[in-house]
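Provenance and format

Records in this collection were gathered into a single text stream. Each protein contributes a sequence line and a token line. The two records reproduced below are adjacent in the stream.
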Amino acid sequence: MLALNDRVFIFLGEVVHEFSKAELQQFDFSTIRAATDNFSDSKKLGQGGFGAVYMGQLPDGWEFAVKRLSQNSSQMEVEFRNEVMLVAKQQHRNLVRLLGFCLEGVERLLIYEFVLNSSLDKFIFDSRKRANLNWDKRHKIIMGVARGMRYLHEESQLRIIHRDLKASNILLDSDMNPKISDFGTARLFELDQTHAETKRIVGTNGYMAPEYEMTGKFSDKSDVYSFGVLVLEIVSGRRNNHRIGNDMEDLISYVWKNWRERSISNIIDPSITSGSNTEIVRCIHIGLLCVQENEASRPIMASVCLMLGSHLVALQVPSRPACFIHRAVVSDTSSTQDCSSRVSEAERSRSESNQF
């Protein structure tokens, strides 16, 4: 059996080989440290479970984003390898572009294009900034994310399941074009593979499909569910796990209740003052189809793109969507019992997964 140092050496050799095949630039750590003012808080763009992201600027004025993986994370090498093996080979206008790397001592740094307008959550969940997102911009973001996910699932040389699609992982460039980021938890599927299963459930509450959160089973339809949540957040301007009035009610239940009651105006963000009402309602409809309880009832991303791009494509009638799994009590009494049982099941699943 190989010693740890030998395994690390082999791993790093594989990583460098993958980077060289992708023609990515290798940076010295000292260069990145200087470009980020020694990773100062003033340069920090965000913080995730596997590390922090900083803005860097070289003396010639070139700006970039750098992900510095946490040395305290037991998954650091896995995260790094995922980004190397998956992102380096992908080229699509709606995916953030990996430009280079730094491997020096214990440091693991990934260099990305700098995306000017930060992440979608900074806009959509901020009442002042949200007012700057008219419907045309929101629809453009929805379409761009859909195309990026279609590419990952069906058009790339590799079939990739993202597993953590959410508003904070959607970056917006100077023209408000969306770019999907953060592939640290992504998984590669074989061309004929339909599902996979894990005992280590990773992701974000409110975006995880119920079958994944409860059992660890995931597929392209898990990403479709996350996309559906994202669409409903973009249309409504609300977080999925947000307090609505005096009650704790997840966004999906809120949307479904108003959809059934035909109170569509309650769903739509009041700051949307222009745009096609037919298009807005169609996006809500598509969002509900994506968050169906039964994964087989959810469309694939190619179908989602067709439905978003043409009003001539007929939409199925959505059934009751999956309930949001959360510790909070759901205000809709008709679904409280279902939610409670799912909470218990999900908690048991998490408890079991934490033993591995």
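Adjacent record:
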Amino acid sequence: MSASSDAPSLPQPPSEPTATAATSASPTLHPQQLSVPLPLSPHTTLHVQITPLQTSTMVFLTTTDPSSTSSLSALGSFVYSMPNRLQPSEPLSTPLYAVPGSIDFATRVAKILARRTGLPAYVGCSAVFGGSVIEEEMAAVRLAVEGVMGVLGEGKR
């Protein structure tokens, strides 16, 4: 007995999904690095790695000093911040990973970057300011933000 042409056809598997704007956006993975000595602690250096992406900015911050060993440092905090459409002067943020010694610094930098760039910002921070005064930490925030904005300005964002 031969197969009849009147038999119902089996469903075909779906074809490959087509690329959309969200899936076809290619990141600009060209991280840039800065190292800046802190003004109130000349032996401590703030290291900043900036990765500008099409839809966000990723920044990693850490500090080193002559007494630090060359071993690996702790991960630190990781914060996500995004512009607030209802109140542009108050960006929204959430810690994705929190370490008590670095969460405030990471949150501060992430919120400033989200407000100034108008884009979401991911900020990782293992910077240590133990035993320092608040002026030193605020100077480090200023240096980090100025450095990031300088790099983003060069990229003609």
